[in-house]
Write a structure and sequence with these properties.
The structure is a homodimer.
Chain A (H helix, E strand, L loop, with lengths): L1 E5 L5 E6 L6 H6 L6 E5 L1 H14 L3 E4 L9 H13 L7 E6 L1 H13 L6 E5 L2 H7 L4 E6 L2 E8 L4 E5 L8 H18 L1 H9 L1 H5 L3 H21 L14 H10 L7 H18 L5 H13 L10 H9 L10 E7 L2 E6 L3 H13 L1
Parallel strand pairs in A: 2-9, 3-4, 3-5, 5-6, 6-9
Antiparallel strand pairs in A: 1-2, 7-8, 10-11
Chain lengths: 354, 354
């Protein structure tokens, strides 16, 4: 089991590897909770509930998984359930599931009695390398994704790689796109490993996987610690997300998994990067090739005009100007505003035609 | 206009007095907002909307006032309205109303895109001396009050005493009970002023009122700065609130104004103080007399047993043990746990029989 420290205030540890779950009891005991509440989905509980229960006696709260359930009414359900089951200010929430569960359980912990501790136990690759780390929590509105939420750092993250074995292949690949993102924006070596070890990664070779996940977590940990509340630095983590979020919103969060939408977003960002003179064509090609190799991706069926409209209403749009994260080269990223509209339009049309 | 600084991180100023509203434009300009959103109730907008509009061009969002509307569905309405009207991360919320509006608008600002700045412009006495200062925001659940929320300090507070002129007498008196609370827990001199100047205070003499409000704000500012996230020190602000919240919950937030419920709670706390040997009988009598003098209070019609049950499910109950704030003498307070059940029961029965 590898341990990576995230140096926020307070700092916390991410445990990564086979049997990382065995470190959960110690992580929870340190918080001296009055009660422990595991918030999870029926599916995760079916597969791994017994295993978690062996480690920690807890109260359980089940919620439906899926972006369409990541809403304020679900937050109300969770928090009412916490009251009914006797949660108080000294209680601890364990978020046990993928990104959606982690975001909702994290937001419930952030706001229940104005904040109780949360331990993230991510069960998807996406959540292990991204969502569970960094303290972003929240829910969607019909108007867009993650529009209501809070920064609430977990007190510990337990990423047990065994749980990835039961992950559907499509979801596993969706998580790998976020790993590609980490390499693209901040770790050229991780990017090369993903190019070289593609077959082992896709076969879920536990050894390669642990080191690849650890590298991606390290990227996120470093950026989050330097910028806890999403100032400029942290925004590079949104590489691929401007267009990605628009694709998700357009299809009502149903057509794409988050990682898939981000993958399309990275392809669009690569094209914007080249056409705005920020990125060399050969680096863009390497990036697009790697994404395609970890595919297939569901085709983009939306009208370009509709996607462009949604980009305008994105959270990352400030004072009416959309901002894009671009990668000047593999392993480096920066935020760019003032991209000419035709360049954005061409990139969006490009992914619609692929 | 008096100015009191609240030394949180970042610190902010509370402006108190006639025409304090004229300081709003400068307070907002300092934040360099993309847009300004005033969240208010129809009634406050009717009385004071034009006056505020003269100072600040803004988008308006109206929500129904009253504890029964301080819910997650209303939060959803507000945040969706923010999206529709084009609020982004650089937008600023102005909370323009009483405690309920301040709590909801503050919580909306705390969670919209994971947090945008809020300026509190309280229009009730209660909100001016208490709710608008200190960063507590949130909504109720059917199970209890303020169970979901966040700490989100305002960037400025503008307490214009002119708006108190249109306050219904009952609401004005309800606010005075919180001023009595401030005196009782931390300012013996303020307490004496309230005893001595009762007639002028009740006649809303602007001079006396300004100094009394400033003293109460000073108490809150000092405590909040020393304890931003409600550790032990800040809990003394909850004097009268353990029983008070139970009374409000029992009557579904309809029978009592918050200040009235706190007044009953302070009477109960005085009796608990005496019967547990923490408070001298003559100090308790002074406190109870002052509360009665600023009355009348609506009678408590609930069954004592029901109130006792609700005390058990209060946020301030930790590991099953209710905590009470008691005043060893006028102007000093401490948190006490382990009060014997019969002592609590006797105090609750006492207020039911008054």
């Amino acid at each position: 089991v590898k341990t990576i420290r995230v140096r926020t205030k307070p700092p916390y540890a991410v445990a990564i590897g086979e049997d990382a779950l065995s470190q959960l009891p110690a992580a929870i005991d340190r918080l001296r909770p009055s009660k422990v509440f595991v918030i999870t989905s029926p599916r995760v509980r079916d597969f791994w509930g017994k295993e978690l229960g062996r480690h920690v006696p807890a109260n359980w709260i089940e919620v439906a998984d899926g972006e369409q359930h990541k809403t304020l009414p679900t937050l109300e359900r969770i928090t009412r359930e916490l009251v009914k089951q006797g949660a108080d200010r000294k209680s601890v929430v364990v978020a046990f599931g993928g990104g959606v569960i982690g975001d909702m359980a994290g937001f419930a912990a952030a706001t229940y009695m104005r904040g109780i501790p949360v331990v993230q136990v991510p069960t998807t690759l996406l959540a292990q390398v991204d969502a569970a780390i960094g303290g972003k929590t929240g829910v969607n509105l019909p108007e867009g994704k993650n529009l209501v939420g809070a920064f609430h750092q977990p007190r510990a993250v337990i990423a047990d790689t065994r749980v990835l074995e039961t992950l559907p292949p499509r979801e596993f690949r969706a998580g790998l796109f976020e790993v590609i993102k980490s390499g693209a924006i901040a770790d050229a070596r991780l990017f090369s490993t993903l190019e070289r070890e593609r077959d082992k990664v896709l076969a879920r070779d536990m050894g390669v996987l642990e080191s690849v996940i650890a590298a991606a977590v390290q990227v996120k940990a470093r950026i989050v610690a330097a910028d806890e509340h999403e100032g400029d630095l942290r925004r590079i983590l949104n590489f691929g997300h401007t267009v990605g979020h628009a694709l998700e919103a357009e299809s009502n969060y149903r057509q794409f998994l988050h990682g898939e939408a981000v993958a399309w977003g990275m392809i669009a960002a690569a094209e914007i990067g080249v056409n705005s003179g920020v990125m060399r064509a050969e680096d863009a090609e390497r990036l697009i090739d790697l994404i395609i190799e970890y595919g297939p991706l569901p085709a983009v069926s939306a009208k370009p005009r509709r996607i462009l409209m949604l980009i305008q209403s994105d959270k990352k749009t400030m004072r009416g100007v959309p901002h894009f994260v671009l990668t000047p080269k593999i392993g480096a990223a920066k935020v760019v505003s003032g991209i000419a509209s035709p360049v954005v339009r061409a990139a969006v049309e490009g992914i619609c035609q692929r």
